[in-house]
Amino acid sequence: MNLEKYMLPCLSKTLFGVECLGCGFQRAFLLLFQGEFIASFKMYPAIFTTLIFLFSWGLTFIFKGIFSQKTILILAFINVVFMILGYAYRHY
User: Fold this and answer.
1) What pTM did the predictor assign?
2) Taking the CB of residue 2, how many other CB atoms lie within 10 A of it?
3) pLDDT tens, residue by residue, 47-71
4) What are the φ/ψ torsions at residue 80 (nearest 5 degrees)?
5) Rounded distance between C-alpha atoms, residue 60 and residue 5, angstroms
6) C-alpha radius of gyration, the chain, whole number
7) Cβ neighbours of residue 60 under 8 Å, at least 6 residues apart?
8) What is the mean pLDDT of each run of 10 residues along the chain (92 residues)?
9) pLDDT at position 48, please?
């Protein structure tokens, strides 16, 4: 089954022709599910920090107080840093 035809297009790239900081996440996630960890990281270097952040954030909603707000903000900051560095690595 070809899942790439069901992926959402990037609105920024479609309208303005410029990739956003999240471009490549869906394909990297698909590669991760296929077990291709290195290819996933090369496609979107922030894949692992994004998943850790989203998992932690989700757990905070399910189990109130499992992570403090400060911890979530630190994880978000680390994720944004990886997203910016990955974007710079891919385009410059």
Assistant:
1) 0.86
2) 5
3) 999 999 999 999 998 998 899 999 9
4) -65, -40
5) 33
6) 15
7) 66, 67, 72
8) 82 91 93 95 95 95 91 97 93 84
9) 97
